[in-house]
Amino acid sequence: MNLILEKCSEKVKNIALELKQELQIDGGRGDVALSVRERPEPGFSLDVEDGAAELAFGSVPALCRGLLTLYSAKTHTFHREERSCCKELGYMVDCSRNAVIRLEQLKKMIRVLALMGYTYIGLYMEDTIAVKEEPYLGYMRGAMTPSELKEADAYAKQFGMEIRPYIQTLAHFNQITRYEHYYEMIDCDDILLAGEEKTYEFLEHLIQTLSETLSTRNINIGMDEAHMVGLGKYLSQHGYTERFQIMEKHLERVLSITRKYGYKAQMWSDMFFRLAYDGQYYVKDKEIEYQLNIPSDVKLMYWDYYSLDTNHYDQMIVQHKKITENVGFAGGAWKWHGFVPHNHFSYHASVAAFKACRKNQIDSIVITGWGDNGGEASQFSNLPALYADAEFAYTYCAENDETMETEKFKVLTGITYDEFMLMDDVNLLPEDKKKTANSSKYLLYNDLLIGTFDSVVNKEVATHYASVAKTMQQLSKVSTYGYLFKTQEMLCRLLSLKSDLGLRIRGAYKAGDKAALERIAREDLPTLLLYVDDFYHAFEQQWHLENKSFGFEVQCVRIGGLKQRIDYVKDILERYLANEVTQIDELEIEYLPFAYSSGDDIRQLGYNLWRNTVSPSVV
């Protein structure tokens, strides 16, 4: 489609031209003359007829979504009217689990989300923000600089979007606890010491820096998962104090800072919800145990991305509204379970959650993209989930109709929605894919001799990975996002050999089959080392394209350790075959099945902690 913009303002022309670089294919036909007008109603309306299009919009994000809809049109005449169910729809990028997104890639993310109709991008920065008064905050962690934030902020503004800070003001400060400078303001674990003046000086330095670099006056102050608050240094200094008293006083001090800089604050709800409901988080039809003093100008963000039941989300929103009417919702686009997203599960969870949000008129929704345990998954691997969430916000899926229009996705990515969703297959999942499991990560690091996860490996696993490797290879050639699929191709090829190799080694050793052990030592293990190298190089390319280099040193340690361990296994097998050693100690121990958790079905088992996967010893 050739869009003629002569009747448009310079502002609209600039937006359209800037966004066009993200359109991967031409979804329409011929020349279309566009005229644009603002309207008081939210959302947009689009009318196309006889080579002319009229787009009326209530906000710039709606305008951007309208443009994508126009570019995706396959008919010469049509009408479309859309309106978001919420006033603000955001996506939160995790910049604190080692993967800090590069500025140019953040701009790309802004363009992609603008076309979907999002109103803001959140940057989750526990310590990864440079603060002049706190030089060790984000030191060697790829901290976002004030100049980077200012540039991203200005860029987002042209699309009517915010760059919104997501910070912590109580817990999750694990990275700075190593520095003696911060010792006096740590309560225990990764929790700040409430009531300590140095704590509030530190927080003011952080919040003031944000106020000077980002134009938004919205901020998320965190305060989640501080379960041990008051039980460390605070206990020694003040004696035992009820947590609700500590939390309320600390919140008021933090709000005195945010208000000073003109911020409206959001915070995660779990700590205050648990205090209100006697320690429980998932409750329904329950009366409040303790009436909390939550200021009316603070929005409690109910976060939940685990259920597929609309009634569950509905009841939890109702219970939150017993605490305060000022409630928002945070869902999830699952990319925090290793190298592979869970876009199918994200889709089904969002179907349920958005229905509950619409019913309860939730006006603020954010989709979180966490990066637990290393930030391994691509920043763009969850695009299908983010696309679906925008569709759910703007075009409601009826109660018994979960079909979704996907034409715009191909225009935006150069690959069909269903093809992109095939990335989920890198993890073995149930047929309906309504579970989260991450075999691709724990089988990658599962030790060939210790074999912690060997008992969950069945005969189909190696065959599965060989088949999926071929699919990923095909998809790596069809889109500008092909590099994502190249990484998965190399991972699957590696796992097609490695996934059951520990079982084969143990079986041959126990059977005294030295011929089989020799084949493994001389053929399989050298090939496996080459596959590890191929995967490493593809993953390294993906990482450095999307993220700052900081944090990749962890991947070097992990993958380098995997490679060295494979080399060790090769060496010990050769020494055993040469009778230089009489036994292999790890293979002499009676093997016990996986027991880290109650689940042992590879299609439903999710285990993400590298340090426990790689060895039962202390890492």
Task: Please provide a brief summary of the model.
By secondary structure, the protein is an alpha/beta fold. The chain has 21 helices and 15 strands.
Indicate the percent of residues in helices.
Answer: 40-55%
Q: Describe the sheet with the most strands.
A: 8 strands, parallel
Got a strand count?
Answer: 15
Low-confidence stretches: none
Overall radius of gyration: 26 Å
- Global outline: globular
Distance between the termini: 56 Å
Query: Within the largest sheet, what's the order of strands?
Result: 8-7-6-15-14-13-12-11
Mean pLDDT: 96
> Which secondary-structure class do the elements indicate?
alpha/beta
- Strand fraction: 5-15%
Could you characterize what this model shows?
The structure is a single chain. With 619 residues, the chain is an alpha/beta fold. The protein contains 21 helices and 15 strands. Strand 3 (44-49) and strand 4 (52-57) form a beta hairpin.
Topology, please?
Blueprint: E1 2-4, H1 10-20, E2 31-38, E3 44-49, E4 52-57, H2 60-71, E5 78-82, E6 88-94, H3 103-116, E7 120-124, H4 146-157, E8 162-166, E9 186-188, E10 191-192, H5 197-213, E11 218-220, H6 233-238, H7 243-260, E12 264-268, H8 270-276, E13 298-303, H9 310-323, E14 327-332, H10 343-359, E15 364-369, H11 383-394, H12 407-413, H13 417-421, H14 439-445, H15 460-475, H16 482-498, H17 501-511, H18 514-546, H19 552-577, H20 585-588, H21 610-614
Parallel strand pairs: 1-2, 2-4, 6-7, 6-15, 7-8, 11-12, 12-13, 13-14, 14-15
Antiparallel strand pairs: 3-4, 3-5, 9-10
Helix pairs in contact: 3-4, 4-5, 5-7, 9-10, 10-11, 15-16, 16-18, 17-18, 18-19
